[in-house]
Every structure is written in C-alpha cells, then in structure tokens.
Amino acid sequence: MAAETAPVMALQEALRFSGIRKVFGGVKALDDVDFAVGAGEVHCLAGENGSGKSTLIKIITGVYQPEPGAGMQIFGQTYGHISPTLARKAGIAVIWQDLALFAEMTVAENIAFETLLGNRPRAVSYTRLRKVAQDALARLSDDVHTLSAKVDQLSRKQLNELL
Description:
Layout: E1 13-24, E2 27-38, H1 53-60, E3 71-74, E4 77-79, H2 84-89, H3 107-111, H4 126-140, H5 156-162
Antiparallel strand pairs: 1-2, 1-3, 3-4
C-alpha cells in the first residue's frame, strides 16, 4: 500500500521582481535579475563580493530604484516605485550581514530605531519606542529588564542575545 502524502499548499507570492537592472556609472551591478518570494518564506542571499546581493536587497527595500522597465510586485500589487516606507509597511524586512548597534543608545532605542525614521523631524515618543521594543523582546524571551541599559554597558552574552 502506498503511503499517503499531505497535499502541498501553494504559498501566496509575497514578492515578484522581474527584469531588475541597476547601473552605477556605466557598471552593471544587476542585469535582468528575477526574484520571487512566497508569503512567510525566509531567504538567504549568498555570493561573492560584488555579485549584486546588497544592490538587489536595496531595490527590494526601496533604498535604490531599478532602471526603467523592471517589474515590481508586492502581494500582487504592481508598483512603479518602492520607497523604504512602503517596503516596511508591506512587511519586507532585512537582516543585514553586518549588524550595527548604536553604543550610546539604549537597547530599546536600538530595537525600535526604525520608528524614529521618517520624512520629517518630529518629537520622539519614548513611551511608544519602549512599547515597540518590549513587544519585540516579548516574542523572543521574558527578559525585558535590559531595555533602558546603554548598549555599551551590556555584557558580551547580552550583546549576542540582542543581535
């Protein structure tokens, strides 16, 4: 008797970038790249230095714009331009190879740093910032007592946990 297999469920496509090209001063960083990710998938890009990994990620996150003619879709919606704000609101997140922490800032400020970004200067809501950080840490562990500590005062073990 043949073993039954569970039906394979198709993932909703979260991202589809096609025909991505990027040129810097006449140098082709990306040339006709296609990249797609299903909802809930996690991908790792690996390659040699200069192969275009960071450039592709910066296009997906709206930091760079591709050359004209690229196809960019997020959850089926086609975009001619993607900004960092749009990418974040769509749930696009990147874990960079080289993580950087601001030593003079608190753990909470480092975790919730993106909430400080925007197009216009505005007052910082430390209550909101702390809540964002608490929620993030609560998903990882019960240890939220380090939120107000400055990063440069953390032990090596605490730094590793934060990263």
